Structures are given as structure tokens and as C-alpha cells.
Amino acid sequence: MPLIGLGLATIGASGKTLDVFFPLIAFAGGDLESSNLYNSWNQLMDDNILEIQDVEALNIEDKTTLSALQSLNSNIKLILCRIQEDITIQSIEEAYLKLHLISYKFFQPNTLNLDNLFNTLPNVAWTNNGPIELESINHSILESKRAHRSLEIKSIDKFPRLTDYIVPPGVRIADTSRVRLGAYLSEGTTVMHEGFVNFNAGTLGAAMIEGRISAGVIVGKNSDLGGGSSTMGTLSGGNKVKISVGENSLLGANAGLGIPLGNNCIVEAGLYLTGGSKVEVFDRDMVSQGVVKADQLSNQDNLLFIRNSLSGAVEARINLKSVELNDALHKNQ
Fold it and tell me: What pLDDT, in 10s, does the model give residues 111-122?
């Protein structure tokens, strides 16, 4: 776990850190270059956060990176942030480093301790000129009008969009405002305009995302979230179960999912399946096996969940179909 991130921290008018971009992360026990950087940086640090005054002290061999770090704006500080063990988040620098670790795909969702994340991150205005403190935003708007300069406020939130920091290889994102920093997007993933991926959530392989991946939710490879579909998160509302979608599965348009779904499963369009939903289970010969709560079918493979159009009852049948993605839509070169 020991690692150190090299970050560019944006400092607001009040002197508080607003965000941190980590272009380089070094790991203890990583490959030779990474391990050497970690050891070099670790010797500079008495505390877990250190402001760097002399770029040469970082021993960075890449000349392009070194040059970029030598010409920083006055509101940008160069820092090192060290994480020695995975404990509750203590600082905004650590919070941003953990979000980067997930989006760089060093760690999968739900494998890092993100406790205290929301309390640590400030709510800021995300603009085309970077983050601005909310206490300063009205003055910034006035100044932009006076100078006839563009100031676009893209959102007011604790989380920025992923692509302002990291562009994952081999993905398509139709609307970048709908994918937060901390999202985990595997190569071959396509996120269409109505798709959404929260932090600490994402895809473990090529996937079509036209629905919502809530925080904590992971989607297996070759699976499809249809337009307007939704997965139940754990941030609010009382749900404590981590929802997942298995491999080769389909969540139909406007469907919803409140249980972990197994491999090769289908939830029909428009059906919201919660853990408490009463489901009649049928075997391969369409003989009823009784009624159970949906959460008893969690992580079971080869199921087709439908609502009987005559009785209105929710049924789980053996899924005889296979879900296949259109390869042409996922060769994101």
C-alpha cells in the first residue's frame, strides 16, 4: 500500500486547497522506476504532505514532465502526498489521491477506504478556469463581465468530472460531465449521453453504459445498461447492499436494479427489481418453484427477470439467451 503522489494543488483566494491533480504516483515495491521514485520522495518527507519548492529535488528523469512542473501559476502548489496505510481520509490531498488511484485503475471500486470523503472535499464552482471557491464566485463573475472574458460554471459540486484530470485509454464518453473523478472505466467501455458513472464505481471490461452506475456499483465485462436504467447506490436512502452487474448481462431500458446480478442475466425493460420484490421462480421446464424475495436470487447466473404482462407478477425464468455487445461500438481507438 505505501505510495506517494506528486500533485498540483489549486489554492483558493482564502488559502485553502480546492483540488489536486496527480500526474505521477510512485509505489513502494513497484517496478524499478516507481520504487526508486518512492524511495527518493519518501526521504524528503517528515509528514504525509509536503510542499515542494525545488523541482530538481524530485529526481524526475522525464524532461517534458520536469519542464511543465517548473512553470506553475501563482495559485498552484507542487506537493507530495503519502499514503502509508489505507485508513480514514484525513486531508483533501489524500481524498484526491485516492480518487485518482481508482480512475488510474490501480485499485478497483470498493477496495479503498473512502470514509470521511464527503466531509473532506469542499463544495466548489467548477469552471473553464478551474475550481473557484463559492465565497469568491460572485466576484469572479463580475470580473469576467467587466473584462468581457468567458467564465463558464460547469457545476457546483464536491466532485469534478473525470476527464479534467484523467482520460482513460480505449473509452468513449459522449457527455463528459456525466462521469465523475473516481470512476473506474475499463478499455472498451462506451458511456452514451444518458449514461452516468459515479465515483468508486465503474466497469471491469468492455461495456455499454446508457444508464446510471451509482457509487459502489461495478459492471462486469460485456454487459449492457440500457437507456434510462438505474442501479441502486449506498450513499443515501438506507441501502447497505453493494450492487453489481455480472458479465454478459443486460439491464433493459428504464429498468432498475437493487440486488447483485449474476452472469448472463437479463432484467427486462421497465422492471425495477429491489431486494424486497416478490419473485416467482421457474425452472427450465417452466414449472414454478415458489415465490421468494429477489435478494435470495443475488449473484445467481442465467436468470431472466420479467413482469408477467397478464398477472403483473415478477418472474425469474432460466435465461436461454446470450448478451453480446456490438464490437464495432467498443473499439474505441
Answer: 999 999 999 999
Query: In the block, which residue shows the cell 459540486?
Result: 157
Q: 3-state DSSP call for residue 36? A: helix
| pTM, full prediction | 0.93
Any binding-site annotation on 312? no
Using one digit for the tens of pLDDT, what is the confidence trace for 22-66? 999 999 988 888 999 999 999 999 999 999 998 988 988 888 888
Which residue in the list 210, 247, 280, 324 is annotated as catalytic? Answer: 210
What's the rounded Cα separation, in Å, for the pair 230 and 257? 6
| Residue 331 labelled as part of a binding site | no
The candidate with the shortest Cα–Cα distance to 256, out of 235, 287, 281, 225, is 225
Q: Is domain 162-329 in CATH 2.60.40.1220, yes or no?
A: no
Residue 205 is placed in which grid cell? 471490461
**C-alpha span between 22 and 47 (Å, rounded):** 18
Q: How many angstroms separate the Cα of 117 from the Cα of each of 159, 189, 327?
A: 10, 26, 37
Tell me the domain boundaries of the chain: 3-113, 125-157, 162-329
Contact 324, 222 (CB under 8 A): yes
Active site residue 33: no
Report whether 194 belongs to an annotated binding site.
Answer: yes
